[in-house]
Request: fold
Amino acid sequence: MATKIILHEMGEGVIEGTVSRWLKQPGDAVAKYEPVLEIETDKVTTEVTAEEGGTLLEALVPEGKTVPVGTVLAIIGQSGEEVNSSAPPAETTQTAVTTQPTTSPPAPPIVAPAAGHATNGHTQPYTGRISPVVGRIAAEHHVDLARVTGTGRDGRITKKDVLAYVEQLAVSNEQLAMGKEEPAIAPAPLPPRSPAPPQQPTAGDTLVPLTTMRRAIAEHMVRSKHTSPHVTTVFEFDFTAVAAHRAAHKARFAQDGANLTFTAYIVAATVEALKQHPMVNSIWSDDGVILKKEINIGMAAAIEEGLIVPVIKNADSLNLLGIARAVNDLTHRARHKQLKPGDVQGGTFSITNHGVSGSLFATPIINQPQCGILGTGIIEKRVKVINDAIAIRPMAFVSFTFDHRILDGATADYFVGTIKQVIENWK
Reply:
């Protein structure tokens, strides 16, 4: 009997996914729990496996197509078995998502089009399908989505569209504040503006299409630089004590099923520093700085499609062994496309170990809405002067990029200094 492979719900707020790649083709044999295709969201790329073995009879959704949760993606059965292809592949109801007032602090007032003004053919409240991210941004900025021009599939409003609309209205407000003549009607939404003229490939060039993840990374990085005033401070750490501890305990940790890496020590030291400097474990709001109760450490991981930041939840409740296991698990699942959207949500502070690729130090971009991000360079033996004597020690540059709205230089340095003290005096 034929069975269906369905796009199941992958996490809170994830209502759709894009078929990025079929790993099996119609006619291929499929074992139970074997990956059949890859689904990409704006957060993760994950594999969809077969719940039953058999033959892939039909692949119902082409690569590159975005479909809602609940869609039938494929049918598996016995070779030669007939299936009813006339049934629609999707078994879901298109649900309209509307923005509702939230309890978050109101954003600065934005000039809105005059009442009754029709934009983009709309005079009634917008009831089309939108993602939770678009809904949240619209609610925060009191945007009437009926006045936003959608550039997504079938005219759907994307995050880029609503952010561009907010930017246009903010510019209009600024002009009015400077005493410029107010237009007869409030400014209508303009199409999303590119920071530079659109670029087109010329003869001999190759155009590499943007994946959903790459587009999301680009938007997130640009928005972060526009949101927070970034400042970076750099320290040099001596990992002698950590290296000695790791050499003495690596075998025992392996017996407990954990690969003891330097990353585990960095996470543990960062957690201790966040406890002593809670202002770093915070986010900015117009009413004040919100100190986060939980300490959830995001670890930036490079994968084939780009960059992803899986999160160690409640890292302050774990010892070194627990942290090592969490690092191993999340890194393995990130590289094998087994993360779920919930695995990359809820982070309160981020760490990026760019040293794995040989980098000495870097100035990472903050993972919004967090306060800062720690970057660790390559750990290598260098000459160090200690008590007027020349020594060779395993050293690394560690950078901390922080939101200058929340932290000043001295506070940021005290925080990194605490991490340095823990690392260099590891017992």
